[in-house]
Amino acid sequence: MPSDALSVWKKRLHDGLRSLDERDQRRSLAEIRGVNFCSNDYLGLAEDRVLRERVVEAVRSAERVGGTGSRLLSGQTEAWSELEEIFARFAGTESALFFTSGYAANVGLFSALVGQDDVIFSDALNHASLIDGMRLSGARKVIYPHLNLNALEDALRQEAGAPWRKLIVTESVFSMDGDIAPLAEIAELAEKYNAALILDEAHATAVHGPSGRGLGCAAGLTQRVLAIVHTCGKALASAGAFVCGPSVLKEHLVNRARSFIFSTALPPYMAAQIGAAMKLAEEMDGEREGLLARARGLRDSLRAEEFATGETSSQIVPVVLGSNEAALDAAEHLRREGFAVRGIRPPTVPLGCSRLRLSLTARIPEAELARLVESLAAWRSHQTTYAAVRHA
Fold first, then answer.
1. DSSP label at 267?
2. 101 part of the active site
3. Rounded CA gap, 132 and 267, in Å?
4. pLDDT at 387 over 70
5. Are 381 and 312 spatial neighbours (Cβ–Cβ below 8 Å)?
6. Which of 22, 187, 223, 325 has the most crowded CB, counting CB atoms within 10 A?
7. CA nearest 176: which of 366, 379, 325, 354?
8. Alpha-carbon distances of 123 from 83, 109, 182, 348, 391, rounded to whole Å
9. Is the dihedral of CA 130, 28, 240, 318 positive or negative?
10. DSSP codes joined into one string, 188-224
């Protein structure tokens, strides 16, 4: 008699999806259409003609267009070693090691670096890749309220003098709130309480700091931290991520980071793409200044309309609407108006904090920002009118 195990598994999967439907949390894949406020291509390099030409030339001249194996087997080429040296100079660190994604970088870094005898102090809003890396490491976690340095110091003080190693981890620009961590103050706490510091610069790379080198560089911290993670799939319009830090850290990760050891290398031409994107991005101070100025303008306009945008001070501008239903309805309204906007819901953000995440890029004209604010105000007016009629 055939086993009914498959039927049981399928039923449980269907039940799980129905549960997500009931909570307005079910997600689906859809191609972006309209003025794109979902993109992390902050400098617009993904559509840049010069970068496209350099990628085409890199593919044309490549000896192969496949990685062929992990870098510890057949995937290593001089192109990757050269790029890592270049990126280390860009980041202001002794070394850099390339991972195939930002997620792989964070999971590999933490699972290889710390263990059950260590303690990690983590901001409550750190990215899922950081959280998963910490979980895999087995280290004890202390979660401090978002950007609450008093709580962080209290937690550090309780561990003062303990024999285990201590590590603080924070994003520099937080991906859902768009606010910026006070890195200099966090570094001072780390040194005061004998803890190491790891920075995730994913949403700062090529956008913030001198020549786009990140907020850690801007704060003069590159030689004072254990590791800095820079991603290439956002403002650098490429793929992968670098873990930057002391040379001994790189050697340790080559030997211990499972997400590096057991991942097939990206094709060598991707190294050329990342290198070309870096050269272009370093010269884009005008685009960086313009992007952040437009973000400030959008933030001010939304606040003038009494929309909640949190403490954002970057190119990421959240519009916090509260309920899943409101976030989905507002996003659908904006899509009808020609904007590509997604509602962000739990578990990506905390319960009651569903929102629109407006991710600005250098290619969005100011006129479209003004039109978006008008469209959002019109949506809210319609919601208010509908609610008043329904309760009359």
1. P
2. no
3. 27
4. no
5. no
6. 187
7. 354
8. 31, 17, 12, 15, 42
9. negative
10. HHHHHTT-EEEEE-TTTTTTSSGGG--HHHHTT-TTT
**Known catalytic residue at 14:** no
Q: pLDDT-based confidence at 390, cuts 50/70/90?
A: very low
State which amino acid sits at residue 110. Answer: F
Pair of tokens at residue 31: 């191609």
Q: Is 171 a catalytic residue?
A: yes
**Mean local confidence (pLDDT), 219-239:** 97
Indicate the residue type of 272: A
DSSP string of 49-117, one letter each residue = HHHHHHHHHHHHH-S-SS--SBTTTT---HHHHHHHHHHHHHHTSSEEEEESSHHHHHHHHHHHH--TT
Could you tell me which residues come within 8 angstroms of residue 55 by beta carbon, excluding any fewer than 6 positions away? 269, 272, 273, 276
| Catalytic choice (175, 263, 324, 354) | 175
What is the Rg, in whole angstroms, of the alpha carbon atoms belonging to the chain?
22
The angle subtended at Cα 326 by Cα 385 and Cα 388, nearest 5°, is 20
Instruction: Please say if 137 is a catalytic residue.
Output: no
Flag whether the pTM goes above 0.70. yes
Of residues 62, 11, 73, 107, the one with CA closest to residue 261: 73
Judge whether 40 counts as a catalytic residue.
yes
pLDDT for 212: 97
Cα–Cα dist 316/357, whole Å: 7
